[in-house]
Every structure is written in structure tokens, then in C-alpha cells.
Write a structure and sequence with these properties.
InterPro entries: Cytosol_ACT, HOTDOG_ACOT, HotDog_dom_sf, Thioestr_dom. It is elongated, with a radius of gyration of 16 Å. The chain has one domain (11-113): Thiol Ester Dehydrase, Chain A, CATH 3.10.129. The chain contains 1 helix and 5 strands, in the order E-H-E-E-E-E. Helix content is 16%, strand content 40%. It has a 5-stranded antiparallel sheet, with helices on one face.
Amino acid sequence: MTTNDPRQPTLRITPGPSDINSNGHIFGGWVLSQMDIAAGIVASRRAKGAVATVAIERMEFIAPIELRDLISVYAEVERVGRTSMAIRIEVVADRDRGDRRIKVTEGLFTFVALDEQHRPRAVDQPSA
């Protein structure tokens, strides 16, 4: 991967020692959580209000995340329905002090826009 990526990450984070599994890599659940956070930010902005994750349509672990990696999570709206939206997520690890960039996982998360009673609402109808 090129180090000149023009995109801006939604989230950047470095995993800590408590995020390591017995193989010396980052727990899959840790990266899934970071992906959900970034997707939620993008979905909430698009829906102009509260959202909830309702499905992970697809997720693929491509390469392990290592302790010293700087993780960039890219999230963008892929499609919008009446009450839901699909957010495409890509996670890239900067390694070797930024000399290498490695795509480590990607996925497609579905969110639903919520009203004040936590029921689905139209995405293009902002919550109060």
C-alpha cells in the first residue's frame, strides 16, 4: 500500500499491551470494536442523529495487527435505504515507523437511524 493515501481516517489508534492475544497479535474483538466506533461516527453524521449497529454483513481479517502498529480506520457510506445505511470500513496498519502500510481488515456494517424512543426512523429525517 502506498503511504500517500489521500483519505482522512475516521479513527486512528494504537493498540496497547492488554489488547494482545496469546499469539502476540491484537484480539479480533478489539479491531471489530474500533471498526464499529468509526462506522457509528460516519452513520450518525449521515443520519443526523442516533444510530445502532444492526448487522455486520461482511468482515474479513486479511493480516494480523501487531503491538506497535498505528491503526487507521477508514469509514464511508456505501448505500442508504429508508431507515438504514451500509458503512464500508477499511483498516490499515502503519508499520516500521510508517515505512509500510498494510491493509489488515475490511467489512460492511449496517446501521439503522433511531428516533427518541429508539425505534427506526427515516435516515433523512433528523432526530429532534
